[in-house]
Amino acid sequence: MKVSLFITCLSDAIYPRVGEAMVRLLARYGVQLEFPTVQTCCGQPAFNSGYWDDARKTATTLIEAFEDSDFVIAPSGSCIGMLHHYPKLFEKDPVMLERANKLQAKSYEFTQFLVKVLGVTDVGATFPHKVTYHPSCHGTRLLGVKEEPIALMNQVKGLELVPLPFAEDCCGFGGTFAVKMADISGAMVTEKVDHVLETEAEVLVGLDMACMMNIAGNLRYRDKPVRVMHLAELLYEGVK
Amino acid sequence: MSTASTKPGTVKERAGLALNDEFLRKAVKFTTERLRSGKKAASEEHGNWDDWRERGRQIRLHTIAHLDYYLNLFADNARANGVNVHFAETDVEAVKIALAIAERKQAKSVVKSKSMVTEELHLNHALEKIGVEAIETDLGEYIIQLAGETPSHIIIPAIHKNRYQIADLLSAEAGETLAPDTQILAGFVRKKLREKFLEADIGMTGCNFAIAETGSMVLFENEGNARMVSTVPKTQITLMGMERIIPSFEDLEVMATLLPRSATGQKLTVYMSGITGPRRTEDADGPDEMHIIIVDNGRSNQLGDPEFQELLNCIRCGACLNACPVYRHIGGHAYGGTYSGPIGAVLTPALKKDESQWDDIANASSLCGACYEACPVKIPLHDMLVYLRRRKVESGNGNLLESVGMKGFSTLLGGSKRMRGVIRLGQLGQKLVERDGGIRIKLGPLKGWNTYRVTPSLPKQSFRDRWSTIQKETQAEGATLDPALKARMEAVVAERKQGGGSSHGGHA
Amino acid sequence: MADTHKEWLKELETASKSKQKSFIDSISSKLGRPRPMEKPAHPFRGAPDFWRTFEWSEEERIERFGANFKAAGGHVARLASFDEAKQFIADKAAEMSAKYIIRQGQPELEAMNLEDAMPDARITVWNTDEEENWRARAAEADFGVVVADYAVAYTGSITVVSAANKGRSVSLLPTVLFAIIPVERLKTRLGEALINFDQAGRENLPAGIHFISGPSRSADIENDLTIGVHGPGVVYALFVG
């Protein structure tokens, strides 16, 4: 059984601790992830901006990287969601389409794999803090990851989960959107952080580091000491 | 059109104006939140919402896939009911027909109920040019007309105004100070417009649905003005988009279940009227003469286009506007077209074939998918926005700087060695600007981002750099795979091989 | 003038028919196939299957209708007979000082003889004089009185259809509307009322079919659904039977 890690750009370059927590947590169950180092980016920035030729190039790299994996797992619903666009990206190329479909079928967001495939909801963690959760748009709306993180958090001892008002609203990241439409994006992240602060939570947790980077960036800009984490980090910290 | 910078009239600039208008932002936020929580409550109370959405989608898909059959049937039946049916391929043609009728009738005034198609045609201006007074009778449209503005929401045209601003506008019209009380404001409008209804020569309506099998047109409304417009004047002119068709009254039950709940959270609008032809000879009210103008104006461009045909399924409920976080912050006028919000961002360019005429509106979205989730007929607007962006790039109308950037992106990330190099470069380069693990400079590409945020700096080692250490440690201390877990994983793989496939996600 | 106008309309019709052909043909061509001449199979017609068997008991229908109609700002009363309905309307007229009432010429209302209970009020019957401007008469009325053709519990709606003796204006222009609903006309679902129009067929449909679900309202000022605008601001649903 070959279970591969798709680290994603942000976790590779900026948040290696997230990938590490995921690898170490799964290793406790005897699931040893392997890491094909030829992998790069899923191509989402190019795809979403309309540069599909460029997106196809990076997509091909990824398809090749995971060709012989049984499962591909990433700490991001958005990047896994992008793999669901690959069949559309290669709709006119029957050979690549077949390979794209295969990759899509075996790709899982981290909590999806843990809960839906392994059937684990209680990792035995303790985390005595007040936590609020931001469900990222692509994970919830495109992949349908809704119950999994809640099920995992409900089993963490000491964790007090405070509902985030208007949780389902986008944080305003949207990839190149945050750069192209910086002021709209800024208004959105400011509103999101207002809601996070309303909860008086010590920790904000999520499943996508792009959104977390966006929200954390605004929290820090406003000097608000809320700790921002990926759920994999929280769970691993809770079992260490 | 290439660089989406800040030249006058860009989406970005209009959004900038809106973002600095506290009144507008508060008014839009207040009302959209009311509308979307109303929708949520109504759809939850009704139950099986996704089954109804799917049913609605299937009815719309079926009708549009056979639009030639159903529209032809509708036209024949409406004519048999005594309606004068007209076809207009363009906005200019539609206006020409409407004006010809008004002139023929020597009309002095036209009372109108809400119609987005007439907004699309700028029909009020055209009528006024030939000396016909056009009076909007929907409360929101009336307010907007007094303000000399265009609607900023499909359902709530004056959503960008609060009750105090509306009281000021109506007070000016009344010549006395009216209190900012909705009851008083509506009372004034009722009295004022009553006379207009009774005097008007022509009543003009839009059309929510047109029933092919009976040639009937259906109107949903709360105020009663659409009923007035279609009951009192001697002549009725209805403007309908060519895609408004549904096959039968039975199908109307599904639309009537989806539309009001999605629009305002009501179980049904106060009035739902099915109008089948002009008044019967023996009837004492209803129009003597009825015209229906069927308008294309770019709609048929979507037919046969697998990426956009579903756009014609739209039932104009406005739920995507209320769910959209971008709309909430910038309001409808920033979209720069007749239709705003996510549906407007897609529809406005899609109605125009020529990509070079598209502005940057498709970029004003974070692609969060809230619009798709809210849509009662499940139109994948977030995907369509990406297709629009792609078409603009492929037609050579993309942003030059961005396309160079994307080439660089795919080259650098097309191989892991180069990617590693990029990360290294970043780790070294940031030393100049990093402080306390964060980057705050507001220059170059970081200007917009850092106006609202602090950028995290790159750690000394990337995940790639750490991988061999992590791998060694986990292999040394890791547990053996529990047979039960192994069995679960094998079962998933086996199911996948049998073609069970991706039951874990994708569009629900 | 009349003749020339008719001729003008005829010219428009000829132009429209020829335009119709090219307009529809262009749709077929964009859809990439010849125009279907047979009625296409429509496997998704109407509400989902699970919905079609859903039905409330009569008591529950009345209760649910009442809750919905009141939530929309309407008033509901349950009365034993048309005689009681007559008294109810007469009492309301006294209470609200209503002086002018317009009613439909429906047989049930003829038999009810509202005139008897309200000797002081002026009551006119819709479309009983060809010369009269009936729209204006309805607009002046304090009360409009109609008998509903159907009612729907699930949405709290009254259905009225037009005919020579049933004016569209009577349920629209007066200040207060009274709709008398014989209980056996109250259905559970919207579809139970709508199916009748499909079954009647085009030739037999009235010009106006109206579903009324409360007093006239507007959502246009801050989505504040609390106010009456153009239509009747006060609406009574009176169940009889």
Automatic annotation (TrEMBL), chain A:
Domain Cysteine-rich, chain residue ranges per copy: 3-83, 131-215
Reading the lineage from the top rank, the first entry is Bacteria
* Coiled coil spans: none
* Matching Pfam families: CCG (PF02754)
Q: What is this protein called?
A: (Fe-S)-binding protein
In its UniProt entry, the species of origin is given as: Paenibacillus terricola
Taxonomy-wise, where does this protein's organism fall, top ranks first? Answer: Bacteria, Bacillati, Bacillota, Bacilli, Bacillales
TrEMBL record, chain B:
Coiled-coil stretches are none
Q: Which residues form the 4Fe-4S ferredoxin-type domain?
A: 304-335
Q: Which UniProt keywords apply?
A: 4Fe-4S, Electron transport, Iron, Iron-sulfur, Metal-binding, Repeat, Transport
One Pfam family recorded for the sequence: LUD_dom
Name of the protein in question: Iron-sulfur cluster-binding protein
Report the InterPro entries cross-referenced here: 4Fe4S_Fe-S-bd, 4Fe4S_Fe_S_CS, FTHF_cligase-like_sf, Helical_ferredxn, LUD_dom, LutB/LldF, NagB/RpiA_transferase-like
TrEMBL record, chain C:
Query: What highest taxon heads this organism's lineage?
Result: Bacteria
Q: Where is this region: Disordered?
A: 1-44
Residues annotated as signal peptide: none
Q: Where is the composition biased (Basic and acidic residues)?
A: 1-16
LUD domain location? 62-240
Pfam families associated with the record: LUD_dom
Q: Where is the composition biased (Polar residues)?
A: 17-29
Could you identify this protein by its name? Lactate utilization protein C
